[in-house]
Design goal:
Domain PNPLA: 9-167
Pfam families: Patatin
InterPro entries: Acyl_Trfase/lysoPLipase (IPR016035), NTE (IPR050301), PNPLA_dom (IPR002641)
Helix content: 25-40%
Low-confidence stretches: 262-269
Shape: globular
Order of helices and strands: EHEHHEEHEEHEEEEHEHH
Number of strands: 11
Mean pLDDT: 89
Oligomer: single chain
Protein name: Patatin-like phospholipase family protein
Radius of gyration: 18 Å
Keywords: Hydrolase, Lipid degradation, Lipid metabolism
Strand content: 15-25%
Number of helices: 8
Length: 269
């Protein structure tokens, strides 16, 4: 493959289901496919930022499992949300200490939603941590994040597969969705009904962008996992890895994108 090929990877939001993106990245890396630019919404923005910082997918999984994410959250005394996300910034500063898009090893763009204007906003330069928090700011659960004069919430509200920042900058685009819904014959309760409806809405705006992807990866049935079901992290990671490897097996042409970094080529030899 030509080392000049630009490979874009768009990662959907989906709460803890986004851990499956790490498994996908591990599988792609193992066959020599390394994205040259990553975009993400919500959980996809978080997974993307950690990978773009230079952490290996397995390292990110370990950090997520061992970190009590919720201890960094504080109650919000406001009608705008139940919890504040601002204190989560302290956690991100441990792993992204430079707080700067330009310092990432791989270029990243994240999507958030301007709740006042009803428009998608993309961030790919300047401060890094607040845009990531904005991208993952679930409406109603968290207070909106203010950046400049914008009040921002979860990017997945309007764009849960942000392929647009990859248009014209990448030769190939791989989209990854972590919210595939299994068929449900019995809606058990109101919670189940609301959760399923929200995922359907997110998936609608994902599937509307599927045609923009040269390859589309979606592990079956991940929509059955709860947004905060962190105990399932290893299972979700494995699901992402398995479906990506299956894609490679069924589409050997994707290996034309393979380009091992020099250090990994030497190891392979």
């Amino acid at each position: 493959m030509s080392s000049n090929l630009r490979i874009g990877l768009a990662l959907s939001g989906g709460g803890v289901r986004g851990i499956s993106h790490l498994g996908v990245l591990k599988a792609l890396n193992e066959v020599g496919i390394f994205p040259t630019k990553i975009t993400g919404s919500s959980a996809g923005a978080i997974a993307g930022a950690m990978y773009c910082q230079g952490y290996r997918p397995e390292e990110v999984l370990k950090i997520i499992v061992e970190t009590n994410y919720f201890k960094f959250m504080r109650p919000a005394i406001s009608w705008k949300g139940i919890l504040k996300m601002e204190s989560v910034g302290n956690l991100f500063k441990i792993y992204l200490p430079h707080d700067d898009f330009s310092q990432l090893k791989t270029p990243l763009a994240v999507a958030a939603t301007d709740i006042r204007k009803g428009k998608v906003v993309y961030f790919d330069e300047g401060e890094l941590i607040k845009p990531i928090m904005a991208s993952a700011c679930i409406p109603g659960m968290f207070e909106p994040i203010q950046i400049g004069n914008k009040y921002l919430v979860d990017g997945g509200v309007l764009n849960n597969l942000p392929v647009e920042p990859l248009d014209g900058t990448c030769d190939f685009v791989i989209g990854v969705n972590c919210n595939h819904l299994p068929e449900e014959s019995n809606i058990k309760n109101m919670k189940n009904l609301i959760e399923r409806s929200v995922i359907m809405t997110m998936n609608y705006n994902v599937y509307s962008r599927k045609a923009k992807c040269d390859y589309f990866i979606e592990a079956p049935g991940l929509g059955k996992y709860g947004v905060f079901d962190i105990k399932k992290a290893p299972e979700l990671f494995q699901a992402g890895y398995d479906i990506a490897m299956k894609l490679v097996e069924e589409n050997p042409g994707i290996l034309e994108l393979a380009n091992f970094p020099k250090s990994q080529k030497e190891k392979a030899l």
